[in-house]
Amino acid sequence: MQLIPETAARFGVQDICDPAQNIEGGMKYLRFLLDEFQNPLLVAAAYNSGEGRIYEYGGVPPFQETVGYVAKVVNFQLGLPMPTGKRKASGIVRDMAAKNTSDAGVIAVEKTGKFVGGVMHF
């Protein structure tokens, strides 16, 4: 798993290169994120960009890498293929990146049970 040194230390990993320690620490981190955010979309986003970014943006940060990572994780879990077109980023991700002034995430943190930013919030 990919753990930065600070996160590894937080979850008791002394040697990031030791597979057993790394996986155990990574699983503890994912459990922490799931307990903290109680939403698999936010957990994936926090694992990719750091939990501080979720609080900073109030949801999934509008970073192309993070939004793409969340999409890959969700599509994999649902057994859906990723789009293979060579289109550039479009829609909300492109617009928010261009503005770079938004303090709101792509997906809101609050539990609403309705679509937020084009995604069903669980």
UniProtKB/TrEMBL annotation:
It holds the Pfam family SLT. Residues 1-57 form the Transglycosylase SLT domain. InterPro entries: Lysozyme-like_dom_sf, Transglycosylase_SLT_dom_1. It comes from Ciceribacter selenitireducens ATCC BAA-1503. PANTHER family: MEMBRANE-BOUND LYTIC MUREIN TRANSGLYCOSYLASE C, SOLUBLE LYTIC MUREIN TRANSGLYCOSYLASE-RELATED. It comes from the Bacteria. Coiled coil: none annotated. Belongs to the transglycosylase Slt family. Belongs to the virb1 family. This is Transglycosylase SLT domain-containing protein.
